[in-house]
């Protein structure tokens, strides 16, 4: 029992010595008159921070999931990506000159009730080499400076989210209508080609019929003429055969 009490007491002392993890929280929000899709397209890339934060001179990401920020005052911050969402990412600071440790932060673009965006940047950390108040002030200034610069300097399409959705729906409907028109054009072209083939076949059949009719008529005429000639010949023979014998010239007596 005494051994168990010693273990519990030791664990309690270790927790007290370590202090509360992520004791300080800072959260900054700015409203942007554009839908999250357009806001995130401008600020959501892992290294886009170099384009919108006034303290960052450059960002490199030579290793996947990590980025190195070069500050305009010469400082350097190494950060690790820990989580990503549709319009958010979270990261930890691995190394920096900032008066913090156990630093974890998240940048999120959330739609508001007006179809615009609440851009939220929040961080949790412990103070290092500074008082909690000073560490909190430093981080608050960093987050606030970035969001303020985004709001005032980055240009977004001001189309609200609802309108953007309507535009997307209208675009899809227009695409479907265009596809329908293309299909109808193909159908009409097929019909026209079929009609052309039908008319050509009909004309060819009419021509063949006319030729056959003419040929048949010619053969019929030839047969008629032959029959008529035969009839006339027989008639003539019959007429000659029917003449009286008295009409014949009698030979004189000797």
Describe the fold and architecture.
There is one protein chain. A hairpin with a 2-residue loop joins strand 4 and strand 5. The termini are far apart. It is built from five helices and seven strands. The N terminus is likely disordered.
What is the name of the CATH class of the domain at 19-159?
Alpha Beta
- How many distinct helices? 5
For the secondary structure, the number of strands is 7
Q: What percentage of amino acids are in beta strands?
A: 15-25%
Structural class by secondary-structure content: alpha+beta
Instruction: Name the CATH superfamily assignment of the domain at 19-159.
Output: START domain
Order of the strands making up the biggest sheet: 1-7-6-5-4-3-2
Rg value: 52 Å
Main beta sheet: strand number and arrangement?
7 strands, antiparallel
What separation lies between the terminal Cα atoms? 190 Å
Which residue ranges are poorly predicted, with pLDDT under 50 across at least 5 consecutive positions? 1-22
